[in-house]
Amino acid sequence: MAEINLSLIVFTLLIGLCTGTFIFYGLWQFSGIPSEETSPKSSHRVMLLLLIFLGVALLASATHLGKTFRFLNAFRNPGSMIAQEGIWSIALGVILLIAFFLTFKGQKVPKVLYAVGGLVSCGLLLVCSLVYVRALGFPAWSNGVTIVYYFGSAALLGVAVVYALSVQHAEKAAGKMMASVALTAVFVQIVVTLAFALHLQFGVMYVNLPSTVVLDILRWGIGLLAPAIIAYLAWLGKIKGKSAAWSFLTCVIVGEVFSRLIFFMQGVHL
Amino acid sequence: MSAKQYGMLIDTTRCVGCQTCVVSCKINYQVPEEAYWSSVETIGSEVMYQPTGKYPHPVLAFRPRLCNHCTDPVCVKNCPTGAMHKDENGIVSVSQEVCIGCQYCVWVCPYNAPKLDTVQNVMSKCTFCQGRTTKGEKPYCVESCPAEARIFGLISDPHSEISRLISAKHAQPLLPHFGTVPSVYYV
Amino acid sequence: MKKLTTSKTFKDAKITRRTFLKGVGAITVTGSLGMAGVLGGNTRQVKATEDAPIKYIHSCCTVNCTSRCHLKGHVQDGRIVAVTPGLLPGRDDYPNACLRAMSYAQRLQDPTQRVLYPMKRVGERGEGKYEQITWDEAFDLIAAKLTETKEKYGSHAASFFTMSGNLAKLAWESTTRLGATFGGTTYSTEGLMGDHGASMGMNLVFGQARGGHDTRDYMNSKLILLWGRNVADTHTSELRYIIKARENGAKVVMIDPRQCSNAAVADQWIPIRPQTDPALALGMMNYMISRDLHDVAWLKANSCAPLLVRNDDGQYLRLNGSYAVWDEKSKSIVPAGTAGVDPALSGEYVAADGVKCHPSFVDLAKEASKYTIAVTAEICGLEEEVVEQLAYEYATMKPAGIRMGQGMQRVYNSFAPFRTVATLAAVAGYIGVSGGGASHMGGTSSINPIPGVTVPDFNFAEWSNTGDAPFIEKKSSQLYNMIENDEVKFLWIAVSNFINQSPDANRVIQDILPKVPFIVNVDPFWTWTAKYADLVLPGKTHWEVWDLLVRSPWVMLDQPAIETMGESKSDCEICSGVAKRIELGHLWDKTDEEWIRTFMTSEHPAFAAFDWDKWVQEGIFTRSDGIFDPVYAFKDQKYKTLTGKFEFYTEKLKQFGQEVPSYTRMLEDPQGDLGKKFPLVCINYHDRLNVHSQHMLYPALRIVSSEPEVQINTVDAEARGIAHGDKVKVFNDRGYCILKAFITEGIAPGITAIANGWTPEQYIEGNHQNLTHLTINPVEEFISQTNSAFYDVLVEIEKA
Ligand code: SF4
Ligand code: SF4
Ligand code: SF4
After folding, report:
1. What is the pLDDT averaged over residues C663-677?
2. Of the ligands numbered here, which is closest to the C-alpha atom of B12?
3. B106 in contact with ligand 3, CB cutoff 6 A
4. Which C-chain residues 64-83 have CB contacts (< 8 A) with chain B?
5. Ligand 1 near B183 CB (within 6 A)
6. Residue C288: count of CB within 10 angstroms of its CB
7. Which residue of A225, B117, C673, C712 is most buried, as measured by CB atoms within 10 A?
8. CA-based nearest residue in chain B for residue C48
9. CATH dotted code for C673-799
10. Is ligand 3 within 6 A of the CB of residue B163?
């Protein structure tokens, strides 16, 4: 029954990574912490990475269509969230491209582009989550919690990537500060995950959802508790910035994959 | 209800679960592979034909299902391509040459009505036997039901036989709280 | 998409003239045309081109379901693409075509399911290895075998056996007619296949094997007892009237060990134990008689109840050749039927010659009196309140109709259920009363005889003339014995998946069939039986032949709707082909179409409007003397019994102690010794998706059921550690089968059920007929012939 689909896991994970990273990368730039010299070059690489994420995400979603080469038809009904996904993705893609070219030319990404891109990312996250909220056939998904779920996940992923980027430049102060941000993001995600679990437990009617105990344990252990401990220790300065950031990122990504597996397993149609 | 809307009344107190309706639709439309446009469920039971309750008083009852041809069809609203559409008779159908097979219509339909045509990789679904009903014939499932458990007609016309029966029998649509305003009523 | 019709496909699929069948499981021709595509459920492969015009060709469903529906085939590009109900003129409410008719039309067009060519066995019997031969070779071979058999052993050593796979005139009768024209042995088939108990029971009390109420007559009933008759699945065309009667206020009660389909639309399900139906009926009679709820007037007027029976020998007392009654008015014994008498139903009287005698009703009442509510409930496995309520309602909700089904008569002493239940209806005075009756099928002729017309309605004279060869007709119950006694040297099996539908398959395969030197099987499909034949001939189905089916007041027609599958031929064509080679050509000199044309050349006035072309186009002809309003049997209270009355007292059965309806325990009694080893009763009910083995395995039906399952109550399953869907072994001393368990609250504890018709390749292993037995019953043989007691079977079940 469960609607497990690899391309959808890839799509949602990459969209989360892409939007979350863009938002927090922008915030990071706003914060003024990164040093002036390294920023355009590293921004360039980040924008390229995000473009690749977005491109792969879109490819993944296109391949899951029964008729891949008719994908252009998907824009015929803009009222549909699937079409919206496409439209917002393209918008984000355009912004990423602009940023990419600017940084290619050695320029800094203007703050307004970060602001607009941040909004577009939020828009994309929103429509992506609405795809599920509107899926009346799947009571586990068709609920406002799914929106929170999406944003929480993207935030954690974005923070984790930016955390890793920040330590790249070996900026000590940033490391400590980012560790605290990361800890906060994990905390938020724990709350979101609990909210979603409560919804599954008490808010879902008409269908019997499969039990996912093993996956839940993995998801909590690897995806939430481990990153929390890492970030805490890093904040205390008990582990080195680099290893902390990278292990944090790895745990978060693995955890979010499990989270999506669980999410899609709850896709039991009425 | 002003626009023309065909609908169906299904009397579960008549249904014996034979699935003639299901098989008739499947064969006569040559619906491919595992897809069935219509189905029957055993009320209250996960396993088809397994009664609920305890011996010697178990309860055995069936509920035939098909597309509800909703007045406010979420499948149509949410189809990215417009392949899923509602026609002037209120029939919801899919233009297979436009459909991209995203299956989103299945996700949004609370009734799991559209069925993927796994040969052509596009959506397929119950058409309320458009080709037959416009000629005045009954849908296959209605015509074949040996229990006469299914009645087809114009529910937009308050004076039609079906409208009369819906109110006389206090028939209700399935899961109306989803707000799609189904055109299939159940007794 | 490749078109899968005719021999062209065969070539496409690169199957050469030498085609082999492999293995016991293989019912189809080699791998390249294997079942994969079909089992994959790809119906699209048979889709005709979208734009080809649709032609409608009509047919009649001739499988042995009770309904015989008129079908409308939608034919496109020489293929049937859809089947819908055909019209029944005069009865707008009646057209029906069920899932079986629809799937069958698809199955028969699937070359992987069909026998396409005459096939001669080259491997061992049962191994399934065959070689394609020509029709000439096949005919010559049969002719040679027949001639040889006749010369060596006499013509009776050639047996021609049929069941009921195709009820149309030519298809059903050709094989028997060939046997008759040859002077061979033919069989009355009802016994072995297990439908004869009903006929015997009916004959005993009514003097005729069938008879009943039009189902619409239940609109006049207050209560309807569906007694062993799952109308929904086994007389599908009548279901709607039961439902309407219920909506009209009648209470519908389903009496069945299984909570069958019809129970879903009944007010009450009474889970009776198999074989105990006579006990329930006797208990109800006792309840009525002991409370004076029985219809004394009816019994006096229309039944044998007042007829005096001699105490000494249990035979009816005769007065100058006529039956006698005790007249309460004149206080004397007078001939039955004397005007103005008031016959007694009780007491003991002395006849002129000093012989003591009593009304036969005394014996019935005495037999019934053994069945108090408590005793009845105990025997039937029911709650006492259920029995009492049933008896009370049956007696008081007047009129109450009973629809009887063969479900209750596949037991030992198979004549008892119909006989006893019908007697219950008589005691209540419901026979010949609108809204009442104890109906078997509802096969009352719907024709209003035209006064003075003596010409036959059909011109069957030539067909009925089988020449002067001295053929014999034997009881099918004796087939096994005859073969074991070396009386069968040649066996032709047609319109029958004989092994799958006869009891004790292991015995048949290991002991019976090996004693027959030569077996011919004509069948459209590769059945289990075909695999044990030496020569398998490709038969045709009702969508491929000219044939006739009479369902008064209608006359229906089968005609070729699709291209010939391979080199298949109709049964009649095959018989004619053989006949020509054994000097019987003069009796078999017509084509199928010519026969049908001949049949329809009657001078009968009801056929005045008959027009061949119109008939072919519409597929149905309606006699002008038809009756379309509901009719019911015995309205005139005339019975073709010896007494001319409803006859519950059968004097010739006195010698067996069965002179009045009675209940006997199962031969394989769960409470007897055998029950210690095999505690579960296993019945073999008829299901919604098939008639016998004819509809199995068509992909579109898999949603209904995809493999055989054994239904077992939760309690029995738990006791054996069996979970729903587990693989289980069902076994007894005769054999076993392995299949999945279907755990349900819809069957009584101690009872299990497997649907009839599934064939070995659909079982994980074995077949339910490995569990059944043929036990010759002396009383049944005396009455007529033994009826296979398919439901009188004990088994044990364990996890496999
Ligand atoms: S039942 Fe589902 S598929 Fe049918 S119209 Fe309503 S929403 Fe659409
Ligand atoms: S599968 Fe086809 S019909 Fe369904 S939503 Fe997608 S494009 Fe529309
Ligand atoms: S054909 Fe009629 S009785 Fe049979 S399952 Fe369908 S609705 Fe029910």
Report:
1. 95
2. 3
3. no
4. 74, 81-83
5. no
6. 22
7. C712
8. B30
9. 2.40.40.20
10. no
Taking only the tens place, the pLDDT of each residue in C506-527 is 999 999 999 999 999 999 999 9
* A interface test, pick of B102, B121, B125, B180 with most A CB neighbours within 10 Å: B102
Structural domain contains residue B39: no
Chain B residues with CB within 8 Å of chain A CB: 46, 74, 77-83, 98-104, 106-112, 116, 120-123, 175, 178, 180
Q: Which of C219, C212, C201, C210 is nearest to C93 (CA)?
A: C219
What pLDDT digit, counting tens, does each position of A212-265 carry? Answer: 899 999 999 999 999 999 999 988 888 887 888 899 999 999 999 999 999 999
Residue B117 lies in a domain: yes
What whole-number distance in Å separates Cα of residue C273 and Cα of residue C115? 41
Q: What is the pTM of this model?
A: 0.90
The CATH number of the domain where B139 resides is what?
3.30.70.20
CB of B3 shorter than 6 A to ligand 2: no
CATH of domain C119-193+455-545+566-605: 3.40.50.740
3-class state of residue C635 by DSSP: coil
- Assigned token pair, C468: 């002067």
Q: Residue C646, Cβ neighbours under 10 Å: how many? A: 26
Domain ranges of chain C: 119-193+455-545+566-605, 212-443, 673-799
| Preceding peptide of A110 cis, ω within 30° | no
Report how far residue A232's alpha carbon sits from residue B181's, in angstroms, rounded to the nearest whole number.
53
Of C208, C237, C239, residue with least CA distance to C226: C239
Q: What angle do CA C464, C468, C470 make, to 5 degrees?
A: 105
Chains A and C touch (3+ CB pairs under 8 A): no
Q: Are C103 and C697 in contact (CB under 8 A)?
A: no
CA distance C537 to C580: 17
- Tell me: pLDDT of C28 over 80: no
Per the CB < 8 Å rule, is B143 touching C85? yes
Residue C452 DSSP SS3 = coil
* Topology of the domain comprising A6-265: Formate dehydrogenase/DMSO reductase fold (1.20.1630)
In B, which residues are within 8 Å of A75 by CB distance? 80
Domain span at B169? 6-13+68-186
Return d(Cα A155, Cα C115) in angstroms, integer. Answer: 67
ipTM: 0.94
Nearest CB to A67 within list B101, B104, B180: B101
Give the pLDDT confidence of C419-462 residue by residue, as tens digits.
Answer: 999 999 999 999 999 999 999 976 556 888 788 888 889 999 99
Q: Give the number of B-C residue pairs with CB atoms closer than 8 Å.
A: 145
- For chain A, the C-alpha Rg in angstroms (whole number) is 19
User: Is the CB of B94 inside a 6 Å radius of any atom of ligand 1?
Assistant: no
What total number of domains does chain B contain? 1
CATH class of the domain at C212-443:
alpha beta
Contacting subunits of C (3+ beta carbon pairs below 8 A): B
> Which atom from ligand 3 is nearest to the alpha carbon of B150?
7
Residue C602 has pLDDT above 90, yes or no: no
Cβ neighbours for B168, distance < 8 A, ≥ 6 positions apart:
none
